[in-house]
Amino acid sequence: MSGLNETPSGERVHIAFFGRRNAGKSSLVNAFTGQALSIVSPVEGTTTDPVYKSMELLPLGPVQIIDTPGIDDVGELGALRVEKARQVLDRTDLAILVADAAEPLGPAMEALREQIRDRKLPCLLAWNKADLLPAVPEGTDEALWVSAKTGLHITELKEAAARAAIGAVEERPLVSDLLEPGDTAVLVVPIDKAAPKGRLILPQQQTIRDVLEAGASALVCRDTELAQTLEKLAEPPKLVITDSQAFAQVAGIVPPAVSLTSFSILMARYKGDLPLTVAGVRAVDRLKDGDRVLIAEGCTHHRQCGDIGTGKLPCLIRAKRGVEPDFTFCSGRKFPADLSGYAMVIHCGGCTLGPREMASRQRAARDQGVPITNYGILIAYLNGILPHAVAPFPDVAALLG
Question: Of 191-200, 210-219, 265-274, which gets the smallest average pLDDT?
Answer without folding.
Answer: 191-200
